[in-house]
Design goal:
By secondary structure, the protein is α/β, with parallel strands linked by helices. It is built from five helices and twelve strands. The radius of gyration is 17 Å and the shape is globular. The structure holds pimelic acid (PML) and magnesium ion.
Length: about 240
């Protein structure tokens, strides 16, 4: 039996032009109204504040690619400094050179809506629009998500995104720090490291966060990479509810 067509449901909320929150689901038509309601409620209840602009959007999901979730490993760190050092160590162990320079560039992601796309070796920035960055979008966990309708599950959503990103052409690794002031856990991900959850990677109360996607390959591959991140709908299989 053919499965019913799926739709991407997206929410983006901002205040005074600054990004507050965003989330998305990939669901069959019958589940679109509930997904819109849940994402709308979420936009209104974000710890970063009440938005003055909430956008909800529904698009046909098109052709779906299924990828497995990256395996999850917890890295126990107690302070932001320890967490950043652990992230750097993992990237270096994974064959990324110039890690201190990459970590220094991380600060520049704080004001961006999307991620920085960085050549892992030359450190050249590859995003067509540097203020916006590159946004990984059109993705969800493959398993039915009835219990997922309510509050944000940082871990699950991040694992979905990281698993999609590592399936993109040319991507070799990612580093992420949440921009939610009270969410201190971040991660480093790659195909060989899996999803390394770093228990503490920033100070509580700190609103700065961002993502860097590290790319390796010919420049001719960059458009394919960006197209995959932004346009290919991906369902991630085997995403656990809790880490
Ligand atoms: C975000 O706020 O969107 C990033 C969340 C990172 C989640 C890390 C984890 O809990 O595994
Ligand atoms: Mg956030």
């Amino acid at each position: 039996m053919d499965s019913p067509p799926l739709f991407c449901v997206k929410m983006r909320a901002s205040a005074g032009g600054a990004h507050v929150s965003g989330a998305e689901r990939v669901v069959p038509a019958a589940a679109v109204p509930a997904a819109l309601a849940a994402l709308g409620a979420r936009a209104l209840a974000h710890p970063k504040g009440t938005p003055d602009d909430i956008r909800l959007r529904v698009e046909p999901a098109g052709e779906i690619l299924r990828v497995p979730a990256l395996p999850v490993v917890l890295e126990r760190t107690a302070t932001a400094a320890e967490g950043m050092a652990r992230a750097a160590e993992l990237l270096a162990a994974d064959g990324v050179s110039r890690v201190p320079e990459i970590m220094a560039l991380f600060r520049e992601t704080y004001a961006m809506r999307g991620a920085m796309l960085l050549d892992a070796d030359t450190l050249e920035r590859l995003e067509p629009d540097r203020a916006r960055g590159v946004r990984a979008t059109r993705m969800d966990a493959a398993e039915p998500a009835a219990a997922d309708a309510g509050a944000k599950n940082h871990f699950r959503e991040a694992l979905v995104l990281a698993s999609k990103v590592q399936a993109a052409p040319g991507i070799v690794a990612e580093i992420c720090v949440s921009d939610d002031p009270d969410y201190v856990t971040g991660y480093v991900a790659s195909k060989s490291l899996g999803y390394r959850r770093i228990a503490t990677i920033k100070e509580r109360g700190d609103p700065s966060g961002g993502r860097i996607f590290l790319f390796r390959g010919p420049r001719s591959l960059v458009p394919d990479c960006i197209r995959f991140l932004q346009e290919q709908t991906v369902l991630v299989e085997g995403v656990p509810w809790t880490p």
